[in-house]
Design goal:
heterodimer, A: 371 residues, mainly alpha, 2 domains, two-stranded antiparallel sheet, 14 helices, elongated, B: alpha/beta, FAD/NAD(P)-binding domain, Flavocytochrome C3, Chain A, domain 1, eight-stranded mixed sheet, six-stranded mixed sheet, 12 helices, binds flavin-adenine dinucleotide, binds iron/sulfur cluster
């Protein structure tokens, strides 16, 4: 009679086998969760798990992009290490998620660089600023008002229209690949609406009844990260609205910049810039307090650099506005526009891409939930 | 650390940092006492069996938090009588039931979040409140609360001896990091769980077969404190040969496999022992009502093992399993994969199939689809096992907890020789036998721990105030 018959457990792969393949490892953990189900109330991931019994690669990709890394399920898990089952779902899904963005990126390859390496993103920033200095020097207009005194409107459009359109196209290709891999069906209005509501409230970072996520304070719940992320999201959208309203004023109403404080571009832009800046630096600070082992540690540098780039973009825009009329304007203009350029051009390959894939995952989840 | 622990005269020492101990520590600290919690496990494994739980059973007159409808005292008590066969102390049981209602808001105030009944457990949404994230999240919330209250917690602190003299506790021997220390307290709360992880003790009650049992929860509940108290004449309740055991996946780890190792396939299976023979009616009742008897049934089979056999048509009728089942295209092949005689298994399954009759199969309720002329019969869901591939699970008894414990009164006070000890209280599994003489009511363990933990903490603090 044996005293110890610890089984040959396929689900408890040996430590060497674990983590070899991100999808395989996540599948192992997801199967444990599906037999346990204690975390159902935290987020949409667990209800999506319980709708299936077997998980194809595309299902795992979808779950990974649905997970917002709130970490509630890690601290709640009775099977977390040192337990043999070694469940760390936030990490397993983070690894799958960042790998999936690298796989879907178009052209492939670039994403690996910018997601993994903060240095690469910093280099992109330097290159962006340098490009703007060159442009300012080479394309200095004979006349013009406000910023256009340093870089003509035509030159700005020539640089930024492609820099804006390119990431849109590249991300479009990526999201199409995502949709194919996760088996999405044609999108209906109701799915988009549900996804937009979830994204706008960051429902999956709310911890459900826990009313917060576990991030900067170990297993204590808080909303700091969610609020900081809201600030960034809404700040970014306001900045975007500011630029869009400026474009409309310029072309439709023939009212070129500079705009006074009580104008749409400024009313959107200033609060947007403040929210973006404060939110981004808050996120960066929180990130230094959180346990990197519950994310994808190899992507930590790229993520941190991205958040800082966002913060810098907002901050340089605000400083530029504050410096209006001073001799600092040309240098600040190059700095700000250089940051914007770097942010836009690296979007399909940096953490910025998460917005598109996460939204796609929310839409896909709304489809899965529909009866 | 041992230095400060030893040089302080603690108001209240709580032995065991699971649900019951933490509830006691919170109440005592909130009453102003200087509290020390001695937890035998290392920090990642703190919280004993409580970290494996998912809900607690709660009386309520009207919808309360996540609980639907009403669940009143008499219905709750009737449920208890049914499972214990009357082996309970009515006064204590009713007090526990009544107090459970105020526990839910108390738990919420101390950081516990609840979630609606989990998928697949809708039947419990009226009676049991589910912890968001399960018991470990509850335990984490309580540890944060005691930290905020200034309670001192020592991990890997195993109490080996409680020094009872003249009806009072004078001090405790505790081993911390290999070193033994003597700590002193004015009042003591014992909340160190049962002894199910002590295989020698189980074997002395159950026979050598017990060494083949799996222990579903913590390996740290070895009953050292319970044994020590019993040896010093503390009054006990409960039967030493009784333990709560269910049939779980035979491939589960020896300890701490928890909820995920449960298997719900029995009602749709033919279950055989090592010899390939059936031994009990697999379809006697719906699974939640029969879950708990299968541990004993399997424990009584040779080598304490059994095998549940299903065919492709039943694979998706029950909750997904932790480990994938064994699979084969023939019954003989499946027998071989499971390590039992293929031809014998074939013979048993054939006999079962022949005894099945036509009729409607309804997996969600008693469908009366019974075998004819088979011994033992299968009285519901008896559908022939014919559609390949065939699947098999190995079943082993998984022990949840033991029943033998300390006898307490309605103030959670421990006694010896019929007289109350001056300054010792007990809560949780270590005294649950006072109310649960046998059987088990889902979610009642956490209710007992919360109710008595809180009382013990209040009483101990009042004693030293
Ligand atoms: C898998 C599983 C699922 C369960 N699900 C539920 C459920 O959903 N609902 C429910 O009500 N009940 C459930 N139970 C039963 C429930 O776990 C117990 O009734 C309850 O947790 C008992 O709480 P406790 O505080 O008395 O013991 P525990 O939580 O076990 O705590 C005892 C503590 O004492 C410590 N300890 C032990 N010996 C010593 C020593 N000598 N010195 C110092 N410390 C010591 C241990 O490390 C442990 O932390 C479940 C049990 C298991 C195993
Ligand atoms: S994370 Fe852990 S506790 Fe949560 S569902 Fe998965 S296995 Fe269960
Ligand atoms: S980390 Fe949060 S969002 Fe991700 S699966 Fe766990 S609970 Fe859900």
């Amino acid at each position: 009679m044996s005293l110890d018959f610890r089984g040959e457990a396929p689900v408890a792969l040996s430590p060497e086998e674990r983590g070899q393949d991100a999808i395989e490892e996540a599948r192992r953990q997801v199967q444990i969760c599906n037999a346990c189900r204690y975390c159902e109330g935290y987020c949409s991931v667990f209800p999506a798990i319980t709708r299936e019994r077997a998980f194809a690669d595309g299902d795992i990709t979808q779950l990974a992009n649905l997970c917002h890394n709130c970490r509630g399920c890690y601290y709640a898990c009775q099977y977390a290490e040192p337990h043999d089952f070694a469940v760390n779902l936030p990490r397993a899904l983070a690894e799958v998620r960042s790998e999936s963005w690298e796989r879907f990126a178009w052209p492939r390859g670039l994403a690996g660089t910018f997601q993994r390496s903060g240095v690469a993103l910093a280099a992109a920033l330097v290159a962006g600023i340098a490009a703007l200095f060159l442009a300012l020097a080479a394309l200095a207009p004979a006349s013009g008002e406000g910023f256009y005194a340093y870089l003509s409107h035509a030159a700005m459009v020539a640089i930024f229209a492609p820099a804006f359109l390119f990431p849109v196209v590249a991300l479009g290709v990526g999201v199409r690949r995502y949709w194919h891999e996760t088996g999405g069906s044609p999108v209906r209005w109701a799915h988009l609406k549900e996804a937009a509501l979830d994204a706008g409230r960051l429902k999956n970072l709310s911890g459900g009844p826990a009313q917060g996520c576990n991030y900067e304070n170990g297993d204590r719940f808080g909303n700091a990260r969610r609020h900081a992320h809201q600030a960034v999201l809404w700040g970014f959208l306001l900045c975007f609205a500011s630029t869009s309203s400026g474009t409309v004023l310029h072309y439709v109403f023939d009212a070129p910049a500079p705009y006074p404080l009580w104008s749409l571009p400024k009313l959107f832009g200033v609060p947007g810039g403040v929210l973006l800046t404060v939110g981004a630096f808050a996120l960066a600070w929180l990130k230094t307090k959180a346990d990197p082992e519950l994310g994808a540690p190899s992507r930590w540098g790229g993520e941190m650099a991205f958040v800082l780039l966002l913060g810098l973009t907002g901050l340089s825009g605000l400083v530029l506005y504050a410096a209006t009329g001073t001799a600092l304007v040309p240098a600040l203009l190059a700095l700000h526009l250089g940051a914007v350029l770097a942010l836009f051009l690296t979007t399909p390959y940096s953490k910025m891409a998460h917005g598109a894939y996460r939204f796609a995952a929310l839409v896909r989840d709304a489809q899965g939930r529909a009866p | 650390m041992n230095g400060t622990l030893e040089s302080t005269l603690w108001d209240v020492i709580v032995v065991g940092g699971g649900n019951a101990g933490l509830c006691a520590a919170i109440e005592a600290a909130e009453a102003g006492a200087r509290v020390l919690v001695l937890e035998g496990a290392p920090e990642p494994y703190r919280g004993g069996n409580s970290r494996h739980t998912r809900n607690f059973r709660c009386k309520h007159e009207a919808p309360l938090s996540v609980l639907t409808g009403a669940y009143q005292e008499d219905e709750y008590f009737d449920d208890l009588i049914r499972v214990t066969g009357g082996k309970t102390d009515e006064a204590l049981a009713r007090m526990t039931i009544r107090t459970s209602e105020e526990c839910l808001p108390w738990m919420e105030r101390h950081g516990v979040a609840f979630q609606p009944s989990l998928s697949g457990t809708l039947s419990l949404s009226r009676t049991n409140a589910f912890f968001l994230g399960g018991g470990k999240a509850l335990v984490n919330a309580y540890y944060n609360t005691v930290e905020d209250l200034g309670v001192t917690v020592a991990y890997e602190a195993e109490v080996t001896h409680v020094a009872v003299e003249d009806g009072r506790v004078q001090g405790l021997d505790v081993t911390i990091g290999g070193q033994t220390a003597r700590v002193e307290a004015r009042a003591l709360v014992l909340a160190s769980g049962g002894f199910q992880a002590n295989l020698d003790w189980l074997a002395s009650a159950w026979g050598e077969a017990a060494r083949n049992f799996l222990i579903r929860g913590t390996p740290y509940n070895r009953g050292a404190v319970l044994r020590d108290m019993l040896d010093q004449g503390a009054d006990s309740v409960g039967d030493p040969t009784q333990c709560h055991a269910v049939a779980i996946d035979g491939r589960a780890p020896k300890f701490d496999g928890g909820i995920a190792t449960r298997l719900d396939c029995v009602p749709f299976s033919v279950v055989v022992n090592r010899n390939g023979e059936r031994f009990y009616d697999e379809g006697e009742d719906v699974w939640p009502k029969r879950y708990a008897i299968w541990g004993r049934l399997v424990a009584a089979q040779p080598e304490q093992v059994a095998y549940a056999i299903i065919d492709a048509s039943s694979l998706e009728l029950f909750m997904p399993s932790l480990y994938p089942p064994e699979r084969a295209d023939t019954i003989e092949g499946l027998g071989q994969r499971l390590g039992i005689s293929g031809p014998k298994l074939r013979e048993t399954v054939d006999a079962f199939n022949t005894a099945c009759r036509e009729g409607a199969f309804t997996p969600t309720e008693l469908d009366g689809l019974a075998t004819e002329g088979l011994d033992p019969p299968k009285t519901n869901w008896a559908r022939p096992i014919v559609e390949p591939p065939f699947y098999g699970y190995t079943l082993r008894p998984g022990v949840t907890f033991t029943y033998l414990g300390l006898k307490v009164d309605e103030t959670a006070r421990v006694s010896a020789g019929g007289a109350r000890l001056g300054n010792v209280w007990a809560a949780g599994e270590i005294m649950a036998g006072s109310i649960l003489g046998q059987g088990y009511l889902a979610g009642f363990g956490m209710t007992i721990g919360t109710v008595f933990g809180r009382i013990a903490g209040q009483e101990a603090a009042a004693h030293v105030a």
